Structure formats: C-alpha cells, structure tokens
Amino acid sequence: MAFSLLRRGPSNFERAADGSMTLIEHLRELRTRLFRASLGLLIGFIIGFAISKRVMDVMDNPYCQLEAAKDPETGKCLLLQLGPADYLLLQLRMSLWLGLIIAGPIWLYQLWAFIAPGLHRHERRYAYAFAAIAAPLFAAGGFLAFFVVHTGLEFLLTISPDNIQTTLEVGRYFSFVTNLILIFGVAFEFPLIILMLNFVGLASAKRLLGWWRIAIFAFFAFSAIATPTPDPFGMTALALCLCVLYFAAVGVAFINDRRKRRRQETYAGLDDDEASPLEYDAESVEAGEPLESVAPVAAPLPIERRYDETT
Question: Which end of the chain has fewer CB within 10 Å, C or N?
Fold first, then answer.
C-alpha cells in the first residue's frame, strides 16, 4: 500500500510518447494545455498593459525625431486622435501583442509538450535547432523595420510643400509600424524554409545555388509589394538582407550535403540487408579453480502427526 502510494505513474507526456493514451485522454490533455497557455497569455497581457505606454513611446520615436512631426509653436511631437476611445483601444491592442511576446515561452512550451510525443528523436532535434534560429531572425527583421520606418517617414514627410502640415493619426501610425515589423520578421524566416527543403532531401545545395537569379528577382519583387512605403530605401534594405540570408542558407546546405556524402561513403560497400562486419577479437579465458566438495545435507526428520488430525 505504502509502496503503491510512493510510486509515481507515467506522466501524460510519456504515455503519449508510447501511444497508450486514448482519444478522450488526448482531448483532455489538449484542454489542459490550452488552459495553461491561456493563463500565461492573461498574465502576459497584464504585464504588457503595465509597460505598454513605454513601448509606445519607443515606437513613435522614429516619427518624433523628425522636424516635420513637431508642432512649430510648442516643438512637441503631435499625433492625431479621431475618437475619444482610440488611444485606449490602441493601448489594449498593444498590450495583447506584448502579452503574446512575454508569454511566448509558456504557450510555446504547452504547444511543444502536446506535439513532441508524436515526433521522432531526430525530428525533435531539428525542431530545437530551427526554433533557436527563428527567434533571432525575427528580432533582426524587427530592428530593420525600425530603420525603414525612420528613413521612409523622413522621405515621405520632406516631399510635402511648406504650406501643408502633416499630422499622423495615432491608430494608423502604430498599425503601420506593427505591420512593418511583422512583415520584416516573417520575411527573415525565409532561410529556414530553404534549409528545411535541404534537410528533408527535396533540394540539394547545388540546385539551390542554381536558383540564385530567380531568388534575387523574387526577393526584390516581394520587397516592393510587402513594403508599405513607396520609397526605395525600405525595399532595397529588405531585398538585400534576404539575399544575404539566402546565400548563407545555401552555405549551410553545402555543409549538410557534405555530411550526408560522408555518411553514404561509409556504408557504400554494404547492401541494405547485409550485416556489417564486427572487428572483435575475443580474449581467451583461463579455467577456474575446482570447487571444494560440500557435505550432503541431511534429509529433514519426519514431522509427527498431531492427535486431532485425520488421515
């Protein structure tokens, strides 16, 4: 009884890995994971609401650094609000975005804990590597978007004549910045798709390198469509960064193909159903000393029958 209480049974992760969970248990596991992820998002939303004003001050900094954005009388940076609740709704939306980022480790872990038992060991290793690369690439795209916002707004606001005063609406401005960060961040994940095609064996490194003309044209066309500003600075910056990342991914693909060729050369002389030779020299074992004779054990004496037993 005490041993059964102290003994811990297999967790849901282990049961899902060996396939012993039923459909109802999978649905219950999904409900538990979604509840924990939602709880993490709620905590992240509360923290994001507390720091949302500071983050919004950082996001409007590229616009407020421009002379065209300042009021000529007071010298302050002005943004237009059309409705009485526009700023509050914008702050709530910004808090939700910040909550997704802050609670990212929580809901990503819950998603991974639900999916990982169905993956093989090498698939999990690849997932760890791709996740470790995806986060820095997205962050690099976000920083590049801030540069594009500054140069793009400086170009657009300086071409207006002196008799026109431009004041940006607060909701549209922050939507412009967040959409640009999202577009640039997602675009920087493109090298991961290239590496995925190479690692699964769908495209070799030589084939990927042969597509460089098509890739460069596609990058500039995508940058021209995805960049919301009509100036050439943002389009060129995004396209050049995508080209650099593409050739870096092709370089990693060459390393991966070389590793695959080395593995194939090691087992090139063996058939699929042929056993590999074992180079093992068994050492001779000397005979041990003989065992001493043991005296035979006397047979037990017969037990006398009690007076009240029946035959």
Answer: C
Q: What is the DSSP letter of 251?
A: H
Q: Are 127 and 196 in contact (CB under 8 A)?
A: no
Give dist(CA 160, CA 162) in Å, integer: 7
Q: Rg of the chain's alpha carbons, rounded to an integer?
A: 34
Q: Report the distance separating Cα 306 and Cα 311, nearest Å.
A: 11
Cβ neighbours of residue 228 closer than 8 Å, sequence gap 6 or more? 176, 179, 180
Q: Which tokens sit at 65?
A: 């650094």
| H or E, element range at 259 | helix 232-266
Pairwise CA distance, residues 173 & 183, whole Å: 15
Q: What would the pLDDT profile of 172-219 be if each residue is shown by its tens digit?
A: 888 888 888 888 888 888 888 888 888 877 888 888 888 889 989 998
Q: For residues 285 and 230, is the Cβ–Cβ distance under 8 A?
A: no
Q: Which residues pair with 80 in a beta bridge?
A: 169
Contact call for residues 180 and 145 (beta carbons, < 8 A): yes
CA distances from 287 to 22, 177, 290, 291 (A): 56, 83, 9, 12
Burial class (CB in 10 A: 0-12, 13-18, 19+), 301: exposed
> What DSSP character marks residue 18?
T
Backbone angles phi, psi at 15, to 5 degrees: -70, -35
| Rounded Cα distance, 147 and 144, in Å | 5
Distance of CA 303 to the CA centre of its chain: 77
Torsion, Cα of 230, 171, 77, 143 (10° steps): -60
Tens-digit pLDDT profile for residues 86-103: 888 888 999 998 898 888
